[in-house]
Amino acid sequence: MRLRLVLRVLGLLVGIVSLSMIWPLYWSLSDGTADWGAFVVSILAGLSIGAAMFALGKGEDYQELGIREAFAVVSLSWVVASAVGALPFYLSQSVPTYTDGFFEAMSGFSTTGASILTDIESNPRGILFWRSLTHWLGGMGIIVLSLAILPFIGVGGMQLFKAEVPGPTPEKLTPRVQQTAVLLWAVYVLLSALEVGALALGGMNMFESLTHTFGTMATGGFSPLNGSIGQYDSAYFDWVITLFMFLAGANFALHYMVLRGKWGSWWNDEEFRFYLKVVLFSTFSVALSLYLSGQVSTFERSLRDGAFQVVSILTTTGYATADFDRWPFYGKMVLFLLMFLGGCAGSTGGGIKNVRIMVLIKRVGMEISHLLHPQQIIRLRLNGRVLKEDVLASVTAFFIIYVLLFAGFSLAMAATGLDLIEAFSSVAATLGNIGPGFGQIGPTGNYSAISITGKWILSLCMLLGRLEIFTVVMLFVPGTWRQ
């Protein structure tokens, strides 16, 4: 492990995160609120820390960045980004403790959307803009952004790309990873611009259009309003945001192909078809359950509420237009199961990912066929291509580790004083990067009452979920740190 090289790259990333605070600083200065000082101090502190880390790695060559350094850089980059990103929250006194600030920043960068703020609208717009901006930066990925704007990282960038991009196998749109990063961010920015325009067209002001777009396209869920999207009580906003949440939960490589004129790319992809079927089945079954229970007066409203909550939870966005904690048991059970499924590989969504569930289902079917026909040679295929055994092993291992971590962290959260439902749902909501759970952390609640120990446990869950477990786990393997 070349620790000085790791520090050098981390220094650059800290600098990028610090400079991004200029955007919320603009809102603070334009509003004339006192939080502008917190941003100035945070920017200067972040740049100083980044410069010191960069200086410690003087003389190191980015071309020598190997797989072990990549694991360390990617995992630690989200930790240091959250550590620096917590400063505006803490210095502006928007949160009572630095732990709360770190939790809010980690929730933002990991696109979880779990908040400790009790009265969101009482905070200055600069703080709320920064809170949502952390989503947007973390959605496509801090490392992918760095690769897009720092081409001199060169060959080592592929190792970083593999360690951060979600899914069993990272997709390169071009032979050069730097160009792939640029194209992914271009699609991300384009879809974000389209959503901002659509929301503004419906009458939403520019500040709220931007912040809600950041939360949608990053599948994060932070809203500058206490009542989230439900506060508007607008069918137009509900359906616009549902559509863009759905797009954000799909593979961005497919969006790029469609933008290039290959219109069949969505339907020709097995994972996208599976994803669409899950959305349609869950939406209509939940809507029917809501309508028959009598909780809503019209089927149109039950369909709108069902679609919004299903897509929000499945894509791990976490926005809410209804208090699903009061729904019939069937609706709550569907949403709880969707917390584990998550979005597609190559999306900004969290969770296990649709493609992994598909592979596991196919593998179970393959084993059953093998029992019936022992002599038959069966190949597991995805999109017409035979999956290699190492991919199958990786998917199986990921699922097992995910379930074990869920069980272990649920026990840990129960030990902090949460009841069974809250312990389970808090871990499911943070490990899956979703945000709201059930009980006191439901769509109308928040995480402020969680103990300090619990907040650090859940912060680790968010990090593990965003980096898909293996990247973080590698930091605890002794061999990773050996020279």
Automatic annotation (TrEMBL):
Membrane topology field: Multi-pass membrane protein
Listed GO CC annotations: plasma membrane
Main location: membrane
Segments forming a coiled coil: none
InterPro entries: Cat_transpt, TrkH
Annotated localization: Cell inner membrane
The UniProt record lists the keyword Zinc-finger: no
UniProt source species: Dethiosulfovibrio salsuginis
Transmembrane segments: 5-26, 38-57, 69-91, 136-161, 182-204, 236-254, 274-294, 333-352, 391-415, 456-477
Residues in the signal sequence: none
Name of the protein described by the UniProt record: Trk system potassium uptake protein TrkH
Positions that bind K(+): T111, T112, G220, T316, T317, N433
Family from the record: Belongs to the TrkH potassium transport family.
Record keywords: Cell inner membrane, Cell membrane, Ion transport, Membrane, Metal-binding, Potassium, Potassium transport, Transmembrane, Transmembrane helix, Transport
Gene Ontology terms, MF aspect: metal ion binding; potassium:chloride symporter activity
